[in-house]
Amino acid sequence: MTLFAFLIAPTIFIYLGLYTFQNVPVTFALFYGWLLLIPLLNKPKGLKKLMDKGSLLNITVGVGLGVGSIVLIMTGGALLQHELFDSSQIEFLLKDWKFSGEYTGLLVCVLIIVNPFLEELYWRGFILLKLDQVKHKVMISSLFYSLYHFLVLLPMFKAPYAAIFFCAVFLAGIIWGRMVVHFRTLWGSILSHSLADIGIMMIYFFYISSKM
Question: What pTM does this model have?
Fold first, then answer.
């Protein structure tokens, strides 16, 4: 399989799940199934080493960046909630995507626990190792990491915020990629990523779910 296929496949699965099947659980099955199976089946040299326990500095940096992300996300949500999104439109969209009802809590747990682990394993582990000899590998992996987020952001947020958030995701990918390159472990970026996702879910519960 070509490197480009590894880079673009997650975006294809997100598109199929959300725009073809219009179903978040199906999207999760397709997307996370790929993120888990590809590293396990290919087992690139060095991936196991990246799963070693992180240093205290690595964990501290990860938690610090994650907490900072929560503060920025919640502050932005509080100040710009009426500018960022139309609650009724998001309510309709999430119901259409089956992100509602009795399984919402389970889906949220997937987003804050499974998602950061598998995305970091795939993008900052598997993909960066595959791009090891490629110039600007962190930039390339971050670009494709951001691409499928744009498919999620576009119908949810008012213009031009979807584009702004795409840039924010791209920047986060660069930061987490640099962390892994520097510390040679995934745990700091996983913790930072998980806390950032918690911030996003807090926006959902404070400003969207409460109005549904």
Answer: 0.94
Alpha-carbon distances of 151 from 14, 15, 60, 179, 187, rounded to whole Å: 8, 7, 32, 26, 27
- Cβ atoms of residues 192 and 63 within 8 Å: yes
Q: Is the pLDDT of residue 93 over 90?
A: no
Q: What's the gap between Cα 198 and its chain centre?
A: 11
Cα 183 to Cα 21, 51, 54, 64, 158, distances in angstroms: 39, 11, 8, 15, 37
Instruction: Kindly tell me the burial class for residue 17, based on how many C-beta atoms sit within 10 Å of its own C-beta (0-12, 13-18, 19 or more).
Output: buried
What are 120's two structure tokens? 């970091």
Structure tokens at 201: 């879910």
Distance CA 126, CA 122 (A): 5
